[in-house]
Structure formats: structure tokens, C-alpha cells
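Tutorial, part two.
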Amino acid sequence: MKILAAATIFALGNLLANAPAQAAPIFNFQFTPGTTLQAQQGFIEAGARWSALLTDNIAVNLTVGFGALGGGILGQAASTQDFHSYASFRSALEADRSSALDNTAVAHLPRTSFGMLINRTANNPNGAASATPYLDNNGSDNNSTVFITNAEAKALGMAVVEDTLPGCIGNCDGFIQFNSNLSFDFDSRNGIGATQYDFVGMAAHEIGHTLGFISGVDVLDFNSPPNNGPFYDNEFTYVSGLDMFRYSAQSSASGVIDWTADARAKYFSVDGGATLGAEFSTGTNFGDERQASHWKDLMMLGLMDPTAAQGELLLITRNDRMAMDAIGYNLAPIPEPSQAAMYGAGLLMALAWAGGRKYFHGNIN
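Running the prediction step on this input gives:
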């Protein structure tokens, strides 16, 4: 299996080496004390993977390092975020269009406000905190506001908030740390050790969250009874940029996004729910026990899956690239990997699932 993995990385390396020079995000890393040179290089390589795929001329400032986390958590990421009017967000997406997917996505977005299916709120017409979804399209704050990460705002040319997150060294766009109690493989060129975790792949995953792969559904899921609340649907219930492409069969029939915390299938779609893309996770408390800010677990959907196994090689997939394209990033035109390379990577991942899997992170997005 190590030969297959190496072939995949080699093929990707050739594609990137032969690609023309282009604009790309620059990742500025500040390393917390105790971060080894090996880990520092791993973070730099993880950033380079995104830089090779995106053409947005922005600087993303991240504080990264190691820390003792919970036994079942591999790593975690927190991102600097801010609220924006939906109208300004949509306008920025429209101005930033650079692909057929962008054109489709913007064409299917409502103009000034949006509706959603929501549940578990204090003003649910089916009863306070009811799990039954209802249509919320009254144009209040949560129908006309989105929250996005600093990095996503930069990619869209929108204003950013300068803030210092807990753990950050100075102002930063995100803070990432990994569990120092676990064993990592820092070099994927010869495969991932059978008892180790892919450090570079996991770092790229957490960077993906700071780029904007987040969901406000996690806030609803966490703040609903018996944990908290219930809150009204215009309190603490704001969608992310990615949530604007979150649908279910029920919401699609009503022409709105699905922003519920429950176990019904939710999927990525850029055409108003007509085309079913990759499935999303649905929530740790009321869904599938995975944070909504991920793809569905155990389906081999992409880098932004919620768990990883020892020996598993983690790669950015077409699903990951499509999501980034939709939320405002511009993609570099690169050829798809060969059938043989894709088969090799997929087989390696499938075999790795025979072992136990660990969560990427807890309730930090």
C-alpha cells in the first residue's frame, strides 16, 4: 500500500510542478512554543497544498502548534469570524465569479434574504424546542445575515475583523493545534505508518475550516435543550457561507436551505437543491454524532470528513474543491488524477477504515 500512496503523491507533485505560475494564498504561520521543526514543516506543506489549488491573492495568518487535547480528538481549529449582511455576501460572490460552478451557485441564491428549514427554537410553531422542522422566511436577522471566516472574507474582498483568538500569537485568522499525545507521520511520500496519523493531511483539514468550511448548524445543535436554550430563531442562529448550499429533500421541495439539527440527510448543492452533491454530517447531539461542519463520515467524500484512521492518507478531493469554489475561492485549473492514482488512494483509505477512527476536533469551528 505504501507504493500506491507514493505513486499518488508523485503524480500530484508532477501536476503541480508543471503548472504555470499563478496567484495563490500565502499562509503566514506563527508557531507556539514547543512545536518541533518536523511539525512546522508539516504545517507549511499543508498550507502549500491549498496554495496549489487556490488562486486568491490573500494572506492567511495562522497560529499553530501542539497541545494536550481529549483522548478521542486529533486536533482542533478556531477561526476569526464576523457577521455580514447577506446582500453584501451575495454581491461579493457575484463579483468574484470565475467558474461555471460560481455562475450556477450565484444564479440560485436569493437576492436580499433567504428562507430555511429550522427546528428546536423557542418560537417553533410546533411547540417550543420541537424537533419538527418549520419554514423560517420572515426576513428577520437570521434570514438576512451570514457569518464567514476572515480568510473567506479576504477571498471575497470583504472587510475583515482584526481580533485575537485564545491561543493566538497576535491578531490571526485562525488557531490550530494537535493532540501531542498521539503518534503522527509527518512524511506521506512513503505512505502513512500503520499506527500513525497523517499530520500534513490533518493540518490541511484544519486549515480548511479556517478557510470557511464551517456550519452554524453546530451552534443550533449545541444550544438546544437539554444543553441550553431554547432560543428564538433570530438569536444565535446564523448561517455560514457554506450553509447557503446545505439542502435536504424536504427543504429543496420548498426552495430553501436546510438548517435543522436532526438526523435527516443533508447534502451540498449549488443549484437550489436540484442536484444532490456530497452529504454533510448532521450534528453531534441530534444528528449523526458528527459536527455539521464536515462531510458525512465513512463515505470517502474528502479531506473535510470528520474522522481519520491510523494509516489513512488524507487528500483534498473534488468535493472539497467544489465547496471552496462555491463559498468564494477561485480554483487553479488542474487535470484530474488518473484513474489508477484515484484507485490507489481510495483503496488505501478503505483498508485504513478497518481500524478505529478518531474525531478531528470538538466543538470548535
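The first helix runs from residue 2 to 17. In part three we will examine how such features are distributed along the chain.
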